[in-house]
Amino acid sequence: MTNTIIHVDNIHKSYLMGKEAVPALRGVSIDVQRGEMLCLMGPSGSGKTTLLNLLGGLDEPSRGHIAIDGADVVSMKEEQLARLRLQKLGFVFQTFNLLSNFTALENIEAPMVLAGKLRRRARRERAEYLLEQVGLGDRMDHYPSELSGGQQQRVAIARALANDPPILIGDEMTGDLDSKTGFEVMQLVRSLNQEQGKTVIYVTHDPRMADFADRVIHMTDGIIGREELKNGS
Ligand SMILES: Nc1ncnc2c1ncn2[C@@H]1O[C@H](COP(=O)(O)OP(=O)(O)OP(=O)(O)O)[C@@H](O)[C@H]1O
Ligand SMILES: [Mg+2]
């Protein structure tokens, strides 16, 4: 097992708009170490979301290679990609994206049902455990509309952890939260990184949220500019 968990090698991505190719990534290479907490920053349109989508095989690069835990993502078929996303990656988005007709507990059970590894009782117990871990042991039967933004985001984080993936991917996880709540969510993510060794790669526009990372990579116009190391790493 190498120490590199995410290997991105000279990725290019253009979107076709009519007949015109709009470049979004123009030669991006990044190696993320197992257990690292990596932050991506950069102006709107610099290609951050495009890069995260490619990591999860939600879209295909125009050229270049991506390996997650040693497996080549670009050549995978849809079924393998679906399994990769379920087993290796937990996604957290800006707008929580919880299922509104499901309780907090049921939202966390959903990805476990898809993975098909646990029976009903074990799923329930794991969902309860995860909700307690994110500090929502007293909100298990609440629907998303009955939770605050920060609570909904914590449910989304628990859901991302449902199948115990080694990697957490966050796209502006704190973008819709006030700064105090955003700070609490980042503290939670940092503790998952430090205590459980989760590898985290997240995008933020807020320099204070970037301070939680080991390393910050700045993107501009589809390429990597500056890199900074933080937290004494
Ligand atoms: N589906 C798409 N079709 C066409 N062009 C796209 C598509 N998605 C993104 N783009 C273009 O690719 C570039 C990168 O977009 P991307 O969403 O990755 O930026 P971003 O860094 O995440 O920006 P933001 O901070 O605003 O979220 C932009 O120029 C955008 O217009
Ligand atoms: Mg984006």
Entry keywords:
233 residues; alpha/beta; Rossmann fold; four-stranded antiparallel β-sheet; 7 helices; 29% strand; globular; binds adenosine-5'-triphosphate; binds magnesium ion
Structure description:
The protein starts with a strand and ends with a strand. The radius of gyration is 18 Å and the shape is globular. 34% of the residues lie in helices and 29% in strands. The chain has a domain at 4-63 and 77-98 and 164-229: P-loop containing nucleotide triphosphate hydrolases (Rossmann fold, 3-Layer(aba) Sandwich). The strands form two sheets. Strands 6-7-8-3-9-10 form a six-stranded mixed sheet, sandwiched between helices. Strands 2-1-4-5 form a four-stranded antiparallel sheet, with helices on one face. The mean pLDDT is 95. Helix 3 (104-115) packs across helix 4. With 233 residues, it is of the alpha/beta class. It has helices at residues 48-55, 78-88, 104-115, 120-133, 149-160, 179-196, 207-210, and strands at residues 4-17, 20-33, 37-41, 63-68, 71-72, 89-92, 167-171, 199-203, 215-220, 223-229. The protein is built from seven helices and ten strands. Helix 6 (179-196) links the parallel strand 7 and strand 8. Adenosine-5'-triphosphate binds at residues 15, 17, 22, 24, 42, 44-50.
CATH architecture annotation of the domain at 4-63 and 77-98 and 164-229:
3-Layer(aba) Sandwich
Provide a count of the helices.
7
Spatial ordering of strands, largest sheet: 6-7-8-3-9-10
Beginning-to-end CA distance, first to last residue: 22 Å
User: Remind me, CATH topology of the domain at 4-63 and 77-98 and 164-229?
Assistant: Rossmann fold
* Main sheet makeup: 6 strands, mixed
- As a percent range, the share of helical residues equals 25-40%
- CATH class of the domain at 4-63 and 77-98 and 164-229, named Alpha Beta
Which class do the helix and strand fractions yield?
alpha/beta
Rg, Å, rounded:
18 Å
Order of helices and strands: EEEHEEHEHHHEHEHEE
Question: What multimeric state do the chains show?
Answer: single chain
The H-level CATH homologous superfamily of the domain at 4-63 and 77-98 and 164-229, spelled out, is P-loop containing nucleotide triphosphate hydrolases
Ligands in the model, by name, code or SMILES, are: adenosine-5'-triphosphate, magnesium ion
